[in-house]
Write a structure and sequence with these properties.
four-stranded antiparallel beta sheet; 9 helices; elongated; Jelly Rolls; Arc Repressor Mutant, subunit A; 23% strand
């Protein structure tokens, strides 16, 4: 993994901070001014060019870019992206471009920052930290305001450093988004099995009560509701393709057709037979005259 080893010898000075949405986004690094930029992008995978090397970054990515690097970014898709970015000037800082190894996780003398890292599992964390910096930078500065910006920026780089060290050690990222992502992934791959909260919590190595609390707080629904939603949605599609309710129930991990019908009524607001009739009527209603 490519990145920087950073040693700060003076207080960082705010240069700019903003959040924007853009569709046809292209960016090229500025001439060297002693600055360091940290940006979080979401919505589309950007293409990053470093010298003559082209890299396709994740859809949700955190990037750290030092002035003077021959780097450019481009959104090659038709999807809009959101960009939250902060940049500071680092007087007399020592910035070394390196290729990290697992041994660097124990480097206590430098702050470790990646060129680019997949931010999907900790997006909420950095959104909040960058928002705090943007809020501080938008207010009248003075010495106290500059100190507040510097503190907010150091909080960002400390968090980035911590996540990178975990990645170098091969440890999973922690936090609300990590657990939500893992639960959703397990539901997606194992919804047709006998799956409960205790099973999922055991896989993640945490208690069922803690996992339930984290998931409910982060998504607004319980794990059981998320699991049932997946099962009912899949059963709905199977029945629309001609499966009988009993067969559909078995394929999605529900014990009986009767329980499937109860859940179906709860989530769709109508029975299976009525729903099939509505689907047929909507299909006919929206069918174009020129379609066979």
């Amino acid at each position: 993994m490519e990145g920087y080893k950073l040693k700060i010898n003076g207080m960082p000075r705010p240069l700019f901070a903003f959040r924007i949405s853009a569709e046809n986004y292209e960016w090229e690094n500025a001439p060297k001014t002693g600055g360091l930029e940290i940006a979080l992008t979401k919505g589309a995978p950007l293409t990053r060019r470093i010298g003559n090397t082209v890299i396709h970054d994740p859809e949700c990515a955190l990037r750290v870019i030092s002035d003077g690097e021959d780097i450019s970014l481009k959104n090659s898709s038709d999807k809009p992206i959101t960009i939250a970015t902060v940049k500071v000037i680092l007087p007399s800082a020592e910035i070394e471009r390196v290729t990290f190894t697992a041994a660097d996780a124990g480097d206590a003398d430098n702050i470790l920052l990646p060129l680019c890292i997949d931010a999907s599992v900790f997006c909420m964390v950095f959104d909040k930290l960058i928002n705090s910096y943007i809020s501080a930078a938008a207010k009248p500065r003075g010495y106290a305001g500059t100190l507040k910006c510097a503190a907010a920026w150091l909080e960002i780089v400390t968090a980035v450093d911590g996540f990178l060290r975990q990645a170098l050690c091969g440890k999973p990222f922690t936090g609300t988004e990590y657990y939500i992502k893992k639960v959703d992934s397990l539901i997606e791959s194992r919804y047709n099995e006998t799956l409960n909260i205790a099973d999922i919590a055991k896989v993640l190595g945490i208690t069922p009560n803690y996992l339930s609390s984290v998931y409910k707080k982060g998504t607004g629904k319980t794990i059981t509701e998320a699991l049932n939603c997946k099962r009912i949605e899949t059963a709905h599609n199977l029945i629309a393709e001609g499966e009988k309710p009993q067969a559909a129930a078995e394929k999605v991990g529900i014990n009986s057709a009767a329980y499937l019908r109860r859940l179906y009524k709860r989530y769709y607001g109508t029975g299976i037979n009525e729903s099939a009739k509505i689907d047929r009527e909507l299909t006919l209603y929206f069918k174009k005259p020129w379609e066979n």
